[in-house]
Amino acid sequence: MASASRFVGVLAAVALIEMMLGGFLPEAAETVDLFVLLVVLNSVRGDSLQGLAGGLAAGLAQDLVTSSVFGLYSVACCVVGYGAARAAQRILTSRRAVTLAVLAAGVLVHQLIVIGLLAILEIAQFNPGAGAVLLRAALTTAAGLVVLWVTGRMRGWMERRTRRRTLEFGRGRR
Question: Which of 14, 29, 85, 149 gets the highest tally of CB atoms within 10 A of its CB?
Fold first, then answer.
């Protein structure tokens, strides 16, 4: 339950950041895919249902924020979330390099699905080219590296704080 509420809170923050980036820096909003970053980092814990549900929620939020065809990003994020969770069940994702490789693969798969669905449905003439797709994967992976570093630092700080408080509390009881 706490994990789901935390995911919803982070999803709301990502949607807000994406809307602000779209208003102030549209190039940055088109280059870094924060929703896929959230889906992959949520899915690398290895729970397939959590990856699928997180992908659906993030995809629906991305559909709303980007004003695209409803369901387009939802399908892509569901596939990425489920695929990242299944990959995390098979490989050790506690290493930062492996997590970043799964993230880069997730961004590439997401882009291929979106471009493929747009081409199949003949909705828009959207063909960004290989360079733009690789740039998006590289920049989203770099953003993922920053997020992993910050969350690792925060986790370490919280553990040290908890350990210090436990020791201080234990001494006072004697």
Answer: 85
